[in-house]
Write a structure and sequence with these properties.
6-stranded mixed sheet, 14 strands, 18% helix, alpha+beta
């Protein structure tokens, strides 16, 4: 492949803990965009007003998979892209979480790179406060969504709520079956963890991982994960 045919892009994955409308988030997000090239962004726990997107999102093509609405706001996972979103599939869990009675959501999107190649992105927030059997049931639905993707270049990223060895093993089975490789940043200890197990992950295939880093912030209880990829 000729050098000029290779497309390099930056990817950011972050659970922002519903802080997207706060001044602190806006300041931190603007700082990240100045210091890191972010062509694709997968956000979880986004909060946006029905009236429109906040200004710091308006330079991107956006898609939202909403898991609930309240007081004039929508919540869910949002994908932001410098590249047009060619196609999107919205997903919500059938199961509701115990106590808070909300669903979780995911968003599958397709993007055409500047060299004409396609990349698919699955941005998801996995179900949490449920017994393992229900977590497994919902992850099996995600597996079906993953297996429907025909694109060679594919990123699966988000908050998987893998706080137990059993949950993590099941996730590894699902991703390995679809030839997805787990990205492990050098400072992976800074990824949000429970009981020593990271919750946030990036998996990929058909791409070359050039670099990756966990960025320390105070905006959310999760830190963003940033990666640079090339398609060749």
């Amino acid at each position: 492949m000729k050098e000029r045919d290779i497309y390099r892009f930056g990817f950011l994955c972050w659970n922002i803990q519903k802080r997207s409308l706060s001044a602190e988030f806006q300041h931190t997000f603007s700082h990240l965009l100045k210091n890191y090239r972010c062509d694709l962004i997968a956000l979880q726990e986004v909060k946006v007003a029905h009236a429109g997107l906040p200004g710091h999102f308006q330079d991107y093509h956006t898609a939202l998979s909403c898991n609930f609405e309240r007081n004039g706001h929508r919540f869910g996972v949002m994908t932001l892209s410098r590249l047009p979103i060619a196609q999107k599939t919205l997903f919500t869990t059938k199961v509701r979480e115990a106590g808070i009675a909300t669903r979780k959501s995911a968003l599958l999107s397709r993007h055409t790179l500047h060299n004409g190649k396609r990349v698919a992105l699955l941005n998801l927030h996995a179900i949490n406060f449920v017994p393992y059997r229900l977590f497994a049931k919902e992850l099996n639905r995600i597996r079906e969504l993953i297996e429907s993707v025909e694109e060679e270049s594919f990123i699966v990223a988000g908050d998987f709520n893998t706080w137990s060895a059993k949950r993590q093993r099941l996730l590894e089975k699902v991703t390995e079956k679809s030839n997805l490789v787990r990205l492990i940043p050098e400072n992976s200890k800074d990824i949000k963890s429970i009981l020593g197990r990271p919750l946030d992950h990036i998996y990929y295939r058909g791409l070359k991982a050039l670099s990756s880093i966990v960025i320390d912030t105070t905006v959310s209880d999760h830190n963003p994960i940033y990666a640079r990829f090339s398609d060749g």
